[in-house]
Design a protein that fits this description.
The protein is an alpha+beta fold. Helices cover 23% and strands 38% of the residues. It has two helices and nine strands, in the order ααβββββββββ. Strand 8 and strand 9 form a beta hairpin.
Amino acid sequence: MSHRQSSRRQFIGHASALGVVALISARPARATPAAMKTAINDVVKGAPVRAGRVKLDIPPLVENGNTVPLTVSVDSPMTAEQHVVSIHIFNEKNPQPNVGNFYLGPRAGRAQVATRMRLADTQTITAIAKLSDGSFWSATTDVIVTLAACTEEAY
């Protein structure tokens, strides 16, 4: 076998090995409660988060985690002086802990957002609202999922 053939085989072998590594590292990591806590801190930047003023409406028991409806509403007059600036939704077990960021202003009329999300497993969901005075308010709920979404087999 010539040196040229050997080099080509070595190159293909190394390239294949790197391709496998790239595939493995490209898979989304599963979030953890610690990752959710870090994601929340990235939003609130160390400010205190108080419980209350936020209502998180999501079914407590979900048969199929592929499409779970949820609504977040915040007790706010939505005036120029007092309004919700943003609403953030977090979960602890999906590939990304920060699943939704919604930005509002006084012209929104009411502080409410509705969406659907995928849930990989039974987990805690947290919604945090930032108000125009800079305060943060939250609601947290646990959701039991009987048929998970976002599993590794789905990728």
